[in-house]
Amino acid sequence: MPGPLLTGKVAMVTGAAGGIGRAAAIIYAQEGARVMVADVNVAAGEETVALIRGAGGEAQFMACNVAQEEEVAALVAKTVEVFGSLDCAFNNAGITHSSPKMDMDVFRRIIDINLMGVAYGMKYEIEQMLKQGGGVIVNTASIAGISGKGTLDYCASKHAVVGMTRSAALRYAALGIRVNAVCPGVIETPMTAPLISDPRMKAHLDGMCPIGRMGKAEEVADAVIWLSSSKSSFVTGQSLAVDGGFMA
Ligand SMILES: NC(=O)c1ccc[n+]([C@@H]2O[C@H](COP(=O)([O-])OP(=O)(O)OC[C@H]3O[C@@H](n4cnc5c(N)ncnc54)[C@H](O)[C@@H]3O)[C@@H](O)[C@H]2O)c1
Fold first, then answer.
1. Ligand 1 atom at minimal distance to the Cα of residue 144
2. Superfamily of segment(s) 10-188+218-242
3. Is the pLDDT score of 1 beyond 90?
4. Atom number, ligand 1, closest to the C-alpha of residue 45
5. Cβ–Cβ contacts within 10 Å for residue 167, how many?
6. Residue 2 — very low, low, confident or very high, per pLDDT cuts 50/70/90?
7. Residues enclosing ligand 1, CB less than 6 A?
8. Is 28 designated active site?
9. d(CA 19, ligand 1 centre) in Å
């Protein structure tokens, strides 16, 4: 029997206090990685760590606001200090909103977190990965990063994540760093929980997915873990829709 996919590896996940990030942190650990769990939500982030440790895995929490460059730099440095390297980075923290109004303060906040948060992550992760001779990065974009389905600010931020993923993948392909993105469709997480508390909205969202239901955080996380493992060793620069067929 082959062992877990990521034995001996070190993974770092932003936005790991819930939803897709928590699911990924848990599966990274199940696959043998030691995991740095990062989020602005300290209590829920510590809960993710407790879930991993409770199942026999190794994890540590660090508070980090990805919109602050120095906090992201400190997160990468701490990961290396605690675990010795950074092999798999999952830049996942993000926010959204559903107002059709263009509020420029909200626009800037979306860009600061969804775009700059990923840019800061890649900057310090790549620096570390070049030093250690390679690594793998996965960014969370969205179907709003490969279509116009979303607010202007959210689409702008997620299209940028897809673009940065491609650019970084090309730049570092020959240097041992693979960079890919996942583009979740409509996924059941704390982000969408307020919407699906209304049964009519839930039915509408289920109906938007050709598969006939919303996705689960674990279904996105499984794609992230595959992209982080040697099972995808010839895949870089891709933005993989995990959307129950929506983009088809
Ligand atoms: N749920 C969906 O339907 C869906 C669809 C497409 C893309 N996404 C993307 O997936 C990612 C994860 O979303 P989710 O659905 O799991 O949502 P979620 O709200 O459950 O999780 C997002 C996490 O990010 C954290 N976070 C927010 N701002 C932060 C910041 N500045 N610094 C650090 N952490 C911060 C939150 O505390 C939270 O734990 C996001 O990038 C989101 O845009 C989600």
1. 6
2. NAD(P)-binding Rossmann-like Domain (3.40.50.720)
3. no
4. 39
5. 13
6. low
7. 14-15, 17-21, 39-41, 64-67, 92-96, 113, 140, 142, 184, 186-187, 189-192
8. no
9. 7
